[in-house]
Amino acid sequence: MVTVAGMAEIIVFGAGGRAGRTIAAAAVARGHSVTGVVRDPGRYPDLDVVAGDVTDAAAVARLAAGHDVAVHAAVDLTDPDFFATAAAALATALPDAGVARLLAVGLASNLPTADGVLLRDTPGYPNEYRAFYLGHAAGTDRLRETALEWTVLAPAGDFDHTGEPIGGYRSAAADADLRITYPDFAHAVLDEIEKPGLGRTYTGVTGTIAV
User: Which of 61, 133, 135, 194 is least buried, going by the fewest C-beta atoms within 10 A?
Assistant: First the structure.
């Protein structure tokens, strides 16, 4: 397990999405140096980002060189193989680039509930995007096959898109009714980057009152 002390060099793949851009901003606010990566920088004139494809191992290795930690927040709703391909590229390229850790954004759908049943398999859970859930799970399965030091953090239920951040979070089993704001989720990601403790796990977090 690698601990990042002081300022870290962090590369965020998918820095144009809501989770990615919030994580990147939170990292900068904490004094870290951030490289944001998107496929098409022209779509994000408000962001300081570079072009790159997380499914391209050569591009990942080139962009990630010199960084301490990578964050994978990229999403592709059109390609069912996207997450497995991205995981394979990251698992190959990050060690080659000297990057020891990967933090990835997960889905509540692939987390177990308190009863041990995956949320996506519970009665009444919406499954119109099941192919997307399974594609994401395949990416995590690919990470489990590697020696890479990875952690997947996921909302234990869903993101709260409109609520105010409360400045805290807690680990939780999957529950479709739970919510966490993007800033509170970014708080959890940055805490794990700065003080690693979850190792190779897929962990759910939800909002809670800061203590």
Answer: 194
